[in-house]
Every structure is written in structure tokens, then in C-alpha cells.
Amino acid sequence: MITYWNYNNGFTALETFRKNCWISVTNPTSDEIEFLTGKLKVPAEELNDILDPDERARTEVDELWFTIIMRIPVAGSFNGLPFTTVPLGILISSNLIITICQTKNELIPSIIRNKKLDFSNKAKFVMQIFLQVAKLYMHYLKLINIQVAEIEKDLEKSTRNEELHKMLRMEKCLVYFMTSLKSNDILLAKLRNSKLIKSMEMDEDLIEDVVIENRQAIEMANIYSDIQSGMMDAFASVISNNLNVVMKQLASITIILMIPTFIASLYGMNVPNNFENNSWGFILVLLISLLASAFGILLFRKKNWF
Predict the structure, then answer these.
(1) Are 213 and 277 contained in the same domain?
(2) In terms of residue numbers, what domain contains 263?
(3) Range of lowest pLDDT (33-37, 58-62, 164-168, 185-189)
């Protein structure tokens, strides 16, 4: 899908592209790809790289376009993961800015809703996109932490591996986030020394804010990952211990049930037992079984086995 945006105290949608507008491309069709490569002269190789889900963060320069590829977080179901990262391409020419992403994401709507962006300065607009991306990472990291806390509650009583699998998926999400955030940090360092930034008047405070927010997101991801790794080891032991407790209880119940079975088996044998002609024989055997079982339960309680 391709949308065109003009800025005038906020973004407004256009029916077709104009000079100095922003073109947002999400999950482009073959016709839209042909339009980008044909009419707008977007390099086909760069476009293919942006649409590659494993593409790393980097910059490219050719005669018409200054290309920035960064990694942004997205929420959804991706190979069983609730969160992952995908490339976002920012292509800058003398009269256009194009953003391209293969997946629907929350970044583009957040940019459109933000009325404080400075679209007149392309370099500043790019830095503001980086700032929005860093904030989006931190938002998703908080969501991951909330989901991990919910899984913890289930793990405390669990004897299954399902909760550990959920924790493992969250750990994978954090690994993707850390890798992408670090590559974005390297990209930011390169951009600070690039011709695009140096050729335009750039607010150093904004650049510093972007770097701080991105590194804060990196620290959050590292902290959450370290905590979660420790929790997974601890809860693996908890699940094993919970299973041992259940097995111990089942073994105790089995032993208690064996007592009346053993007594009934003895008096059920076809041999003289002094109770075969007693009208109270059945009741006496039953009472003996109950008393022996009660004694066994009390003994197990005292030993804390039951």
C-alpha cells in the first residue's frame, strides 16, 4: 500500500505524490514495486534489500537517493513470536522522502499522529523517526515484561513445559530486539558523520536525545534478557521440583491404598482365618483396614511425606 503525505501543522493525505512530500510504502504489491522502480527511479537492488526480513541496518548512497535501512519493532505472530524486528528503508532525494517497510507497523501511524515533527528539514525528520523507533522499542519491551510477569505466575504452579516454551519465545524476542537496537546504534554513529547531517543545519540536542533513547532501549533489553535467562534456569528447577512433589504425593497415596488391599487379600484367601464363620468378620476386616490406613496417613503426615 502506498500513501502520500504533505505536512502543514500535521500530516494530511494526498491523492498523488508531489514534490517535497512523504511517500509511505507498506507491504508493496508488484504493481507498486514497478511504480517505485520505474517512475520514482528507486534502485531495484535497494528495494529488494529493504524487503528482505534479515537485512541489516546500513546506509547507501547513489546519484539520486540517500538510503537508510534501520530495524524497527513490530507486534504480531511471526513464526510463533509475539514480537520481532523488520527493516525500514528511508530513501531521501532532493524533493522526496520515501519510507518502505514489508510489514504493517505502529511506527508510521505514530509519525502521522505526531504534530511536532519538523518535515521541512529532511535530516531532522530522519532523526525524529529514529527517536520514534527508540520509543517504540521501549514500549514493546514493557509489554514483553508484562507478559513475562504473567507467565511467571503460571510457572510457579506448573509441572508442564508449555510455560517454559513461552518464556523461550520471549527470550528470542529480546535477542532480536538487542541485535537490532545495537545495529541501529552503529547506524546512528555513522549518520552523525554523514554528508546528509553535515550538509544541513542539525540540532545536536535532538541527535543526543536519539542516541540516549536508543541506548536506554538497549540497556532495558539487556536487563530484561539477563533477568529472564536467570528466571528460566530457576523455573526449570521449580517445574522439576513441582513434578517431584506430585510424584511423591502419588507414591504416598499408592502406599496408603496398598494397606487395605494387602489386608483384604490376606482375609480373602481360601484358608482358615478365624473370621470365616464370624458374622462380624467383614466389618472387623474393614475396621482393621481403616485403622491401618489411618495409622499410615498419620505416619506419613509426621514425616511430611503426605
Answers:
(1) no
(2) 243-302
(3) 164-168
Contact present, 259 and 230 (Cβ < 8 Å): no
Whether residues 148 and 288 fall in one domain: no
- How many domains are there within the chain? 2
pLDDT reported for residue 236: 67
Q: List b or e across 55-84, with b for residues whose CB sees 16 or more CB atoms inside 10 angstroms.
A: bebeeeeeeebbbbbbbbbbbeebeeebbb
| Average of per-residue pLDDT values in the chain | 81
Q: Does residue 105 sit in the same domain as residue 251? A: no
Instruction: Summarize pLDDT for 117-176 with one digit per residue, the tens.
Output: 777 778 788 888 888 999 999 999 999 888 888 877 776 665 566 777 787 888 888 889
Do 170 and 271 lie in one domain? The reply is no
- 105 φ/ψ angles, rounded to the nearest 5 degrees: -145, 170
Name the residue among 120, 55, 66, 116 with its Cα closest to residue 90: 66
Q: CA angle at residue 218 from 214 to 224, to 5 degrees?
A: 140
For residues 286 and 4, give the distance between their C-alpha atoms in angstroms, rounded to a whole number.
87
Query: Taking a C-beta distance cutoff of 8 angstroms, is the pair 66, 91 a contact?
Result: yes
CA distance 46 to 13: 26
What are the grid coordinates assigned to 187, written together?
A: 547506524
- Collect all residues with Cβ–Cβ distance below 8 Å to 7 and sequence separation of at least 6: 22, 117, 119, 120
Query: What backbone phi and psi angles, to 5 degrees, belong to 115?
Result: -90, 0
Closest C-alpha among 249, 282, 185 to residue 241:
249
DSSP letters spanning 45-92: HHHHHHT-TTPPPEEEE-SS-EEEEEEEEEEEEETTEEEEEEEEEEEE
